[in-house]
Amino acid sequence: MLAACATSPEHENFKRVMDRQVGKSIDDPDVYAVFYRLRQKNAKPLPNGNMQQQYAAGRNGRCELNFEVAPLTRRIVRWTFDGKERDCVIETRSPG
User: Fold this and answer.
1) Model confidence, pTM
2) Can you tell me the distance from the alpha carbon of 96 to that of 94, in angstroms, rounded to the nearest whole number?
3) Phi-psi bin for 65: left (phi > 0), alpha (psi -120 to 50), beta?
4) Those residues with Cβ within 8 angstroms of residue 37's Cβ, 6 or more apart along the chain or in another chain
5) How far apart are CA 19 and CA 23, in angstroms?
6) Is 78 helix (H, G, I), strand (E, B) or coil?
7) Could you tell me if 76 and 23 are in contact, meaning their C-beta atoms sit under 8 angstroms apart?
8) Residues paired with residue 82 on neighbouring β-strands, in sequence order
9) 55 forms bridges with which residues in the sheet?
10) d(CA 22, CA 81)
11) Residue-wise pLDDT tens for the chain (96 aa)?
12) Among 21, 20, 24, which Cα is nearest to 75's?
């Protein structure tokens, strides 16, 4: 019963990768959203002056990945996600 409530290893990996995005420039070629060419869904100003940039991520784009970006430095200061843990994972792509 307890195992059913545990976070999947795939989602834990997703969280570790996203944690490593904090501090990077949102424009950096190796930042997750750029490297994987994620589709940007939305961008909006936040009350604290930062911008929230939202991307379709994970399985079939069903995970909403949000990066909070400082406007002057364009650095990622925080990230969040909206979606099911099973969808918020790092997709592996087979070579074309």
Assistant:
1) 0.86
2) 6
3) beta
4) none
5) 9
6) strand
7) yes
8) 64
9) 40, 65
10) 14
11) 444 556 789 999 999 999 999 999 999 999 999 999 999 999 999 999 999 999 999 999 999 999 999 999 999 999 999 999 999 999 765 444
12) 24
